[in-house]
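Hi R.,

Quick one: here's the tRNA1(Val) A37 N6-methylase TrmN6 sequence you asked about.
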Amino acid sequence: MVPLRQTERIDDLLTYDLKIIQSEEVFSFSLDAVLLGRFCSLPPKGRVIDLCTGNGVVPLLLSTRTRADIWGVEIQERLADMAVRNALLNDLGDRLHMIQGDLKTIHETLGHGKFDAVTVNPPYLPVPNGEQNVNEHFAAARHEIYCNLEDVISACAKLVKAGGKVAMVHRATRLVDIICLMRKYRLEPKRIRYVHARAGEEAMMVLIEGMKDGKPEIRTLPPLIVYDENQEYCKELKEIYYGGRASLEFS
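And here's the predicted structure, written out as tokens:
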């Protein structure tokens, strides 16, 4: 039996009968993580790592798509502990390796170029002037307190092997910064998909994947419209959340 801390609960991830420990005191997973977990390219086996893993939701989702060993790196002790217990809760302790650590230095422990794929759902917002969110866990999840965008992309480049893939979800407004930094660190952008809340609205998020030392060429995939005309999740998202083992093709 996996222990729960005060204020924690067990939620249903719906797909693949996965469960996840969450708490109202820390930042819960969101649509961003779910989309990243389906968008990224994965090897059938090998080594995969998820940075800014939080409570480990992305590694849990990735475990349904590959037989690879999966690492998760989270700097906050509270969330890293939840990630460890989430792996155990789903009987995945032999494949999911959750580590408390700083993505800026984790390559010193795990090695350069040791991973076939890297995923990351980083904090989106610059650190604001003046008072920040009083909840340190929410603040760190939303704001670039422990790492900025360049730190994240640099870390990905150090961890992934030549020809390996790096996938990220971020705000669409940061796309130029993302592409420039990816190229700076020899991660050639190869696939991109915009995410819109509703048809006719500008993109709110972007999913982007690059290849270490890849040749220049990028594919722009059809946009994902989250809500249909009835203000319900679109068919693709319903397949993710309610379709069990139904495959969602993003490529």
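The longest helix spans residues 77-89.

Cheers,
M.
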